Amino acid sequence: MILHSQIMGEGEPLVILHGFLGMGDNWKTLGNRFAADGYQVHLVDQRNHGRSFHSPEFNYGVMATDLLTYLDHYGLGRIMLLGHSMGGKTAMEFAVQHPERVEKLIVADIAPKEYPSHHQDILKALSSLDFDQIKSRGEADKALAQYLKEPGVRQFLLKNLYWVEKGKLGLRINLPVLTQYAGQVGEALDQNSMYTGPTLFLRGGRSSYILEIDEMGIGHHFADYELDTINDAGHWLHAEKPDEFYRIVTKFL
Questions:
Q1: Among 5, 13, 6, which Cα is nearest to 253's?
Q2: Backbone φ and ψ of 60, nearest 5°
Q3: What global pTM score does this model have?
Q4: Is 235 a catalytic residue?
Q5: Residue 229 exposure: Cα atoms within 13 Å on the Cβ side
Q6: Which of 42, 49, 235, 238 is catalytic?
Q7: Of 46, 60, 192, 238, which cross-links 245 as Cys (Cβ 3.0–4.6 Å)?
Q8: What is the DSSP letter of 103?
Q9: How far is CA 149 from CA 125, 144, 184, 197, 213, in A?
Q10: E strand map for 154-249
């Protein structure tokens, strides 16, 4: 099974991996900018997300294999690889498993360390949606607001809504499997895994995902790394500060 993607532009391949509960479409605006610079941009939906296939298996090992299968399917050799949050973990896993396929690696606001599970409220909110009763995005937003106060978070999640059939809404994500394996999203990279190619870690200045103490762990796994910070940005740094994100990434590429 081949992961779903949007492909734009011509040139050197740049593959972008979204975060947990996201989809490739979240990166469409930046993807168009990279494509205009001469890259063939692949906005990939990871398994159990977006329009990609659903599977009872969900871990970084199988997601790295999904990416290898995708690259082979499209005849892509060495790629530029960019991943945010969960997508960053998949990108790291792929790079250490298949270093010969990664020209340069960009990891957005995630470190190779273990993170405690912290998506329970979001998953509970999504599980509460009753699509026998909810008939519009507005009604879904009101239902989510009982659990999630931040409008931006709700709008991000509502991108997963789609019309299953006329008058019937549903979620594109495989919510049961993602709920079951949410704890695995925070798993650390194996201690013995290394990638020696050029690697850029980008963090948000207001995010706590990459701390100063994490640099030691980053350097252990990624010998040729640099770390840059986008001030006044949180975890969704690419959405909050797209111009600065674009500038830093294109300079690195």
A1: 13
A2: -70, -30
A3: 0.97
A4: yes
A5: 11
A6: 235
A7: 238
A8: E
A9: 11, 8, 26, 41, 31
A10: 161-165, 168-171, 199-204, 225-230
Torsion of CA 206, 209, 213, 215, to 10 degrees: -100
Q: Which residues contact 28 (CB under 8 A, 6 or more apart)?
A: 6, 43
> Do 75 and 98 touch, CB atoms closer than 8 A?
no
pLDDT tens, 4-46?
999 999 999 999 999 999 999 999 999 999 999 999 999 999 9
Of the candidates 85, 98, 207, 221, the residue annotated as catalytic is 85
CB contact at 8 A, 181 and 208: no
Q: Is 208 an active-site residue?
A: no
- Tokens standing for 135? 């008939």
